[in-house]
Write a structure and sequence with these properties.
Length: 283
């Protein structure tokens, strides 16, 4: 009996040895790792925690946050500054990109620097311009509304003194003007050469914006640095509807600029605008 037990033990040891040899042969190198020492494990755990809590950057795709929610992905191209991409999106009326960039933490009122102006051929920029200004000038009312809802300053000023309202007022449609006035844009602000949003609207023939601006408090008889009023600008551009709006809201037809020229002088001898102004002047 003892001999039988001895043989069985020897057989079991032999089988175990063969099994260990097979495991060593079949497993790829490095599959089995030694457990780290206490100090190594603690350091590894700290590193993982810090990486999970790190804030995503604008240049690298973000991993899911600690709550498992995916962060917004960077908008291409990623080699441009984030605020420049925001300005491009604003000028294009791309509300989806605007919202994505703002969600990633891009400051809504970041202004264009002189370096931006020199390096960016399109859209045309000037120092101090913001995304809201570009949306007001080139974009859509939806882009303007999106930026305003995100807290954009409706009274931001570029280095020239231009504001979002001035740029919006010079466009044929008035939706952006309405949105900006509703957000508190000041219609009495001036550029460095003294022009107001009303003057720019009149010069462009944007008669609907002319009416809206006067209703919001714009002075129809305010003059720029050369003494030119909104009515003179409208008359010089042969913008009959703008002239009608301005006259209907009390614009002074007798006002003259620093050179002594008035609206009638700018309107010329013939044409609907000249006839309208002569009639308003009493013949």
């Amino acid at each position: 009996m003892n001999n039988i037990k001895g043989h069985l033990v020897l057989i079991g040891v032999a089988v175990l040895g063969v099994a260990l040899i097979l495991v060593a042969i079949l497993l790829p190198p490095g599959t089995v790792e030694l457990p780290p020492e206490d100090g190594q494990a603690q350091a590894q755990g700290t590193s993982e925690t810090e990486s999970q809590g790190a804030a995503p950057t604008l240049t690298d795709p973000a991993e899911a946050d600690t709550q498992g929610q995916a962060q917004p992905q960077p908008i291409q191209p990623t080699d441009e500054p984030a605020h420049v991409r925001l300005m491009r999106a604003a000028a294009a009326g791309d509300t989806q990109t605007i919202e994505s960039l703002l969600a990633m933490g891009v400051a809504v009122d970041t202004a264009a620097s002189r370096a931006d102006v020199q390096s960016l051929p399109s859209p045309a920029l000037e120092p101090g311009a913001t995304a809201l200004m570009l949306a007001a000038r080139d974009g859509t009312p939806q882009a303007v509304a999106t930026l305003l809802e995100a807290g954009a300053d409706a009274n931001a000023r570029a280095d020239s003194g231009l504001t979002p309202l001035m740029l919006a007022a010079a466009r044929p449609e008035s939706a952006a003007t309405i949105a900006l006035l509703g957000a508190g844009a000041d219609p009495t602000m001036r550029t460095i050469d003294g022009r107001t949003a009303l003057m720019l609207a009149a010069r462009a023939g944007a008669h609907e914006s002319c009416a809206l601006l006067i209703e919001a408090g714009a002075d129809p008889d305010a003059s720029d640095a050369q003494g030119v009023t909104a009515l003179m600008h409208a008359a010089g551009g042969q913008h009959l509807e703008a002239v009608i709006v301005l006259l209907g809201r009390g614009a002074n037809i007798a006002a003259v600029d620093d050179l002594g020229r008035g609206a009638l002088d700018r309107a010329g001898e013939t044409g609907p605008v000249a006839e309208m102004l002569r009639e308003a002047a009493g013949g």
